[in-house]
Design goal:
It is a single chain. By secondary structure, this protein is mainly α. 58% of the residues lie in helices and 0% in strands. Helix 2 runs antiparallel to helix 3.
C-alpha cells in the first residue's frame, strides 16, 4: 500500500471524496491555535495558486479560506464588510488604478 502525506487543511468533503474513490485517509480535527495556523497556511497556499493561475476558481478558494478565518476568529462577514467599506470611504478603493511612483518631501 502506497501512502502520500499531506498534512494540510482541506475542505470538509475531501475525506468523503477520497473514500468514494476507493482510498482511505487519516484525518484529525483541529481546534484553537492549530486551526488558525493551518488556515493561515491555507490562505498562503490559495493566494499562491491564484497568483499562478489568475483563475476565478482559485480566487473563489481564497475567498472561502477568508470566510473560514473570519469565523474562526469570532468575527462576522458583516463586520468584515463594514471594515472594508469604512476603509474604502476614508482611503478609497482601487478603481482608479493609481500607481504611486514617488513621494518627495519639501
Amino acid at each position: 500500500m502506497r501512502t502520500k502525506t499531506y498534512n494540510k487543511l482541506v475542505r470538509d468533503r475531501i475525506p468523503e471524496i477520497i473514500e468514494a474513490g476507493g482510498k482511505t485517509c487519516k484525518t484529525e480535527i483541529l481546534s484553537g491555535e492549530r486551526y488558525l495556523e493551518m488556515l493561515d497556511m491555507k490562505m498562503n497556499e490559495e493566494l499562491a495558486e491564484y497568483q499562478e493561475s489568475k483563475s476565478l476558481e482559485e480566487l473563489a478558494d481564497l475567498l472561502e479560506v477568508m470566510r473560514a478565518v473570519v469565523n474562526a476568529r469570532g468575527w462576522t462577514l458583516e463586520e468584515l464588510e463594514r471594515v472594508r467599506a469604512d476603509k474604502a470611504a476614508k482611503r478609497g478603493g482601487f478603481e482608479k488604478k493609481i500607481l504611486l511612483k514617488e513621494v518627495m518631501e519639501n
